[in-house]
Amino acid sequence: MHEQNDTRTTQRNGSRTKVVSTTSGDLSVKIAKTRTGSFFPTLLHPRRWIDVALHAVVMEAYVHGVSTRKVDDLVVAMGAEAGISKSEVSRICAELDVEVAAFNTRDLSAQAFPYVFLDATYCKARIGGDKSGKGYRVASQAVVIATGVSADGRREVLGCAVGDSGTTDFWTEFLRGLRECGLGGVQLVISDHHRGLMNAIDATMAGAAWQRCRVHFMRNVLAKVPKGHADMVAAAIRTVFAQPPASSCASRSRSSP
Question: Is CATH 3.30.160 what the domain over 107-212 is classified as, yes or no?
């Protein structure tokens, strides 16, 4: 420790205490201080978290809309007596943005998806505000998602996006992003009859056929039917979709005596 040689660049100058949170509780460790420069063990993170499980719990709670106060209570229950601050939650969950961006920009060219389902839902979300979480407003945001189905029936989420509304420009930008990632071989697009979405499909999915989503079709029909007749009408519509294809009926008629 006190050896003097030409390779030494600095000398130790006491130590400082650092609190490290793990699933076994908060631990106090002493980190050596140097006279010049700085030293930090590669084993530890720059902040006070060391356990990957704690990061995962905080992220999962954040995704499910758990408030920062409840996240703090959850972290304390896991053994980190010091709890967690709002800024720490934001820093940890910023890693989710990186993962989502990587997912939405991954290469899709290795697999053709003849069938693509497009849909959107609206959720309340916090918009704006500073890093401390103050000054934000709550507004409705459109969450759009594309699901591809390969020729062998395998389903895969192709991408998702969040925006102000399901307008033509918003949908067009989203679908063009999928094309740029290598989405190809699309033969049929299934969605509702939203005008903005239809315009975007025409602009980006040239050559692909379009089919109205059965779920949305059923909702649209039942919205025009008296409630007392809704079950009967819904049952009748389901029998239509349950009919065998025309090719199957033709083969049966040819094989019958």
Answer: no
